[in-house]
């Protein structure tokens, strides 16, 4: 009892079972009603066709063989020639008054059923109903008959349909029994179908509850199919991504802690040293320089994190203007030149003239500073880095940063633009540079493409839309000519 109550408790299982029962019940009801109506119509039509065929045959013989044109007319001859076994024949006037019948009863009775006026109108009348007095189910078929072209009578055949109704009742009971059996099978089938859907969902729900409690190492197991398999795979993928994201976050916290500790240690050490006094001006200048550089380094780390936060919250504001790409890349090279010089790396610029894009010059400069800085960081000493700007299509320009450094493996190339991800954590940084660059380029309606081969170098291509507008400083008015 408890199990049955559990099986039909509110939920998807109950809804599936009830919907199946409802749909199948309506379908069975419709089929059975149509079937029984067809059988009833067929039975009744067979009786009606038998009587009408007999009337037509008997009428032919009456006209040409039995009653000649001048032969005396007798009602008994009419009854004899038109009688039909197991059927009462009544001879009526056109008004429905009974003249005689094959049973000899109630000759003075008036018939008022619908078949009589139909026959008087020239068609074959048909009526099914209860016989007055006996309350027996009968069928009446009536037709007008002309005698010698003068007298007109209505021949009315009356036959019982009790046997037909009994057969129909038996068929109805049989069809109901079959319908109940089919419905019982459908109910069992629907429970099986509901369980095949609900049980996997219950399993997925249970595992999801474990994930919600932070147990992301749990996985949904089972050989599911179709949409449920997709759902299970999606949740497993979500758990894997959360685990990976948590690991990346932990790595980021560890990395950023190290990045912040190093300059803070230098600042604190030199601050305490300088406070103690007793140092000559050269040592004091050296200490102040270290404090200044490490402070700038801290500011850069904090600004990078703040930029990423703004991008994530869609709060980054761009100051849009017309940007000369060549000038932008020249400024980028000047900013990175000192760092490249320490590794004896040559920075080369190859740029077509008159390439302009619409965007925020400072943010685009931030993108290329990051790309060139990465190229310097992962390039060998005494190598070169080439910056190329050229028209990519009629409406786009491609800015390429190409180095011949250590390259990126196939496993890492798809992840280098993920937030907090670092190919080599020993080189420092937050792992946000490329993620920020990616989003800044997308804010400028562009895209970044990366190609790399381990041990041979990396090529990063930034594609931006061109603009036909010129900077206001280059527009010469008629008065200035």
TrEMBL record:
Pfam families per UniProt: HAMP, HATPase_c, HisKA
EC number assigned by the record: 2.7.13.3
Domain HAMP positions: 195-247
PROSITE patterns: HAMP, HIS_KIN
Compartments it resides in: Cell membrane
Superkingdom of origin organism: Bacteria
GO terms for MF: ATP binding; phosphorelay sensor kinase activity
Catalytic activity: ATP + protein L-histidine = ADP + protein N-phospho-L-histidine
Domain Histidine kinase: 255-468
Organism: Paenibacillus monticola
Name of the protein this chain belongs to: histidine kinase
GO CC terms in record: plasma membrane
Membrane topology: Multi-pass membrane protein
Residue ranges of the TM segments: 20-39, 168-194
Record-linked InterPro entries: HAMP_dom, HATPase_C_sf, HATPase_dom, His_kinase_dom, HisK_dim/P_dom, HisK_dim/P_sf, Sig_transdc_His_kin-like_C
Main location: membrane
Keywords recorded for this protein, A-Z: ATP-binding, Cell membrane, Kinase, Membrane, Nucleotide-binding, Phosphoprotein, Transferase, Transmembrane, Transmembrane helix, Two-component regulatory system
């Amino acid at each position: 009892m408890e199990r049955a109550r559990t099986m039909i408790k509110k939920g998807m299982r109950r809804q599936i079972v009830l919907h199946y029962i409802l749909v199948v019940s309506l379908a069975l009801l419709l089929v059975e009603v149509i079937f029984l109506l067809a059988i009833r119509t067929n039975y009744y039509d067979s009786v009606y066709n038998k009587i009408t065929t007999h009337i037509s045959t008997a009428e032919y013989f009456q006209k040409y063989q039995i009653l000649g044109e001048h032969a005396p007319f007798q009602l008994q001859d009419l009854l004899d020639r038109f009688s039909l076994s197991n059927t009462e024949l009544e001879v009526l006037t056109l008004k429905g008054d009974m003249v005689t019948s094959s049973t000899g009863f109630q000759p003075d009775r008036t018939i008022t059923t619908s078949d009589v006026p139909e026959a008087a109108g020239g068609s074959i009348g048909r009526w099914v109903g209860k016989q007055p007095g006996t309350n027996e189910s009968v069928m009446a078929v009536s037709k007008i008959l002309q005698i010698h072209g003068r007298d007109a009578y209505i021949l009315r055949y009356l036959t019982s349909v009790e046997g037909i109704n009994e057969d129909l009742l038996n068929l109805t009971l049989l069809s109901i029994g079959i319908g109940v059996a089919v419905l019982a099978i459908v109910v069992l089938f629907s429970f099986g179908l509901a369980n095949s859907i609900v049980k996997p969902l219950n399993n997925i729900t249970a595992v999801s509850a474990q994930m919600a409690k932070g147990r992301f190492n749990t996985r949904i197991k089972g050989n599911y199919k179709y949409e449920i398999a997709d759902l299970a795979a999606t949740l497993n993928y979500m758990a894997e991504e959360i685990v990976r994201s948590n690991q990346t976050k932990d790595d980021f916290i560890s990395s950023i802690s190290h990045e912040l500790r190093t300059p803070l240690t230098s600042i604190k050490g030199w601050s305490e040293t300088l406070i103690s006094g007793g140092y000559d001006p050269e040592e004091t200048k050296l200490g102040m320089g270290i404090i200044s550089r490490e402070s700038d380094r801290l500011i850069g780390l904090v600004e990078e994190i703040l930029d990423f936060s703004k991008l994530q919250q869609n709060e980054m504001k761009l100051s849009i203007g017309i940007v000369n790409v060549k000038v932008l890349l020249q400024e980028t090279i000047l900013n990175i030149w000192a760092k490249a010089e320490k590794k004896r790396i040559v920075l080369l610029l190859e740029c077509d003239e008159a390439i302009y894009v619409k965007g925020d010059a400072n943010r685009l400069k931030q993108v290329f500073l990051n790309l060139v800085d990465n190229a310097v960081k992962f390039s060998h000493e005494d190598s070169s880095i080439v910056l190329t700007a050229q028209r990519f299509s009629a409406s786009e320009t491609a800015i390429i940063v190409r180095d011949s450094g250590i390259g990126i493996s196939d496993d890492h190339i798809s992840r280098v633009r993920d937030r907090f991800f670092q190919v080599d954590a020993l080189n420092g940084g937050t792992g946000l540079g490329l993620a920020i660059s990616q989003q800044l380029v997308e804010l400028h309606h562009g895209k970044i493409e990366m190609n790399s081969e381990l041990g041979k170098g990396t090529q990063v291509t930034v594609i931006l839309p061109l603009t036909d507008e010129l900077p206001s400083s280059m527009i010469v008015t008629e008065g200035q000519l």
